[in-house]
Design a protein that fits this description.
Elements (H helix, E strand, L loop, with lengths): L24 E13 L2 E16 L4 E6 L3 E4 L5 H11 L4 E6 L5 E4 L2 H21 L1 H14 L2 H7 L1 H6 L18 E4 L7 E12 L5 E9 L7 H7 L1 H4 L6 E10 L5 E13 L2 E13 L1
Amino acid sequence: MTLEPNKAENNDHLSGFKYAWYKKGEYNINIKSYLTLGTGKANQTEIEEDWVIMPGEYNHITIQSSTQRYIQADGQMQPFYEILEKINKATEVVELSLNTDKSIHEVTNKNEVLNKWEEIKKDLHFFELVKESYKAFIQIYDKEFNNIDRNIRQNFLYQIMFYPLPVFSGGSHTEKIPVRTALSTLFPGEELEYSSAYRILKNKEGGFTVKLDGKSKGNQTRFENIYKDKYQRTLGNALEYKYTLEGEYIYNEDSVLSEVMFHVKEELNEKMIYVCRYHIRLNKK
């Protein structure tokens, strides 16, 4: 899909589109992922959680998140989900400061989050003694908490909720979205850059719709060596890396985000594909 961007002229009908949140907006988030390996389904997961978003002054915002609910999950992964549930308690309340384009600048309550994490780690030591794979899983998150600003900024759910449309920072409806950095799912820990294009539409019933699509930017040959080490023997095929995304944002008559449908697809080749769908809905304002 290729979007035709807004043209420089005749955008008066979009003048009411602005950045806004309700004082205490409650959102339901459903995340469904599908991973193929070879010719069959390797894993399918569906989880839900709730966010309460409370805007503050001077580009500050607070997010309260619920415990994740597993609607569909791989039974063999249950111990990891139990560990992850404990890990997520450290970020039940996240306070953010935003850049002028409304993307995330930093976590302002990082000391509180890190103190919670240190307490949770004591409880998780039991799992570290049970199995080396559990220990390695916990250590990955320990590294992430020690670089929490970077990891919140690159967490894709947070990237979706805080997408830097130029109009939010006083720009025009035709300016380009800056290139963004995210974390690969199929190459854990590795960063990738992606570019995106968008179009803003006025809805007949009031409000606005933003459609966007994007793809990885630059040469991904740096993944070649990782692929050879981790996947080549299993998959056989050569690396044909692709990363694409497409999203639709609906803003209501108050210009407040009311629904998002967002898809991300990461593909090594035809034998290994990861697809994730994010469905976000405003439940209560």
